[in-house]
Design brief:
6-stranded mixed beta sheet, alpha+beta, 6-stranded antiparallel beta sheet, single chain, 26% strand
Length: 301
């Protein structure tokens, strides 16, 4: 069993999130990397102790990797906001990853670089060795289990995506046929998330060709660089479109589609082999949370 420490704002939600990760045996809220001994919540709340609300995650590395845990951490935190997560503000809410083994640092650094490169700016999330950690008071332990309606700065869809991601990995298993994998991923996404249209377009020469999907009939072919799907393919990046009518060159497969997100699927050789396309019949449905999780799901293919 190994351990890693994640500071991601209010520890109630972070604890509840990591408790749901397969391979995690314990998630314990507490206070890390401060300047005093055995602090109380009231003392930490003053922002004078140097401590930040942190969750100790103990995990089985044979079931879940440190790399995946760190990537999951970045799905529930904003790495560009200093001393604040969600509505919670103060040095006690600064974000950080604190390690106990020096051999873990290169793995974590690699994820930090990937996130920074994607965002195009340096991260404010701390990466430091663990200096100290004190478990929080008993009433903080398993807080959201004791108080299901209690405050949580994480969105509910974050927890839905976590369950979906883990179920998709199990369901697809070692199936090698890409079309079969796309078909079942489309079905699971549609069943769990209830989007208007969910499916794949496969790269075939200089066009995208309709693949497995769930929803109403759709465009059968889309050119390179055309519409949202073709643009995501050309630019090799996820595109989040709050209003499809405002996207230059939008291809209207259905007049009911109002907002859209398209994620490139990268093959083993680094080439785009398909795009995951999801439409909503409401405006501004998708955000950075959807993007982070759908990119993880696209990698499962």
């Amino acid at each position: 069993m190994k351990e890693i420490y994640f500071a991601g704002g209010c520890f109630w939600g972070v604890e509840h999130f990591f408790k749901g990760v397969d391979g995690v045996s314990q998630a314990m809220p507490g206070y890390a990397n401060g300047n005093t001994q055995d602090p109380t919540y009231k003392e930490v709340y003053t922002d004078t102790t140097g401590f930040t609300e942190t969750v100790r995650v103990r995990y089985n590395p044979e079931r879940v990797s440190l790399r995946l845990l760190t990537r999951l951490f970045f799905t529930v935190t904003d790495p560009l906001t200093l001393n604040r997560q969600g509505h919670d503000e103060g040095t006690r809410y600064r974000s950080g990853v604190f390690y106990v083994s020096e051999e873990d640092r290169p793995v974590i650094e690699e994820v930090f670089r990937e996130v920074s490169d994607k965002l195009g700016v340096p991260l404010v999330t701390q990466l430091e060795p663990l200096k100290n950690f004190y478990p929080a008071e008993e009433y903080h332990q398993n807080y959201l289990d004791k108080n299901p309606e209690g405050y949580c700065h994480l969105s509910l869809k974050t927890f839905r995506y976590l369950r979906l991601y883990q179920d998709v990995k199990l369901f697809l298993g070692d199936e090698t046929d890409l079309i079969a994998r796309m078909a079942n991923m489309s079905a699971l996404l549609a069943e769990r998330m209830r989007f208007f249209w969910t499916g794949f377009y496969r790269v075939a020469g200089d066009q995208l060709v309709l693949g497995p999907f769930q929803g109403p009939a759709a465009c059968q072919r889309i050119g390179f660089g055309k519409g949202v799907c073709g643009s995501a393919w050309k630019e090799r990046r996820t595109l989040v479109v709050p209003d499809v009518e405002e996207f230059p060159g939008h291809i209207a497969c259905s007049s009911l589609s109002k907002s859209e997100i398209v994620v490139p699927v990268i093959g083993p050789g680094g080439e785009v082999i398909a795009v995951l396309d999801i439409d909503s019949d409401e405006y501004a449905t998708f955000d950075s949370v959807d993007a982070a999780w759908l990119e993880l799901l696209a990698e499962v293919l």
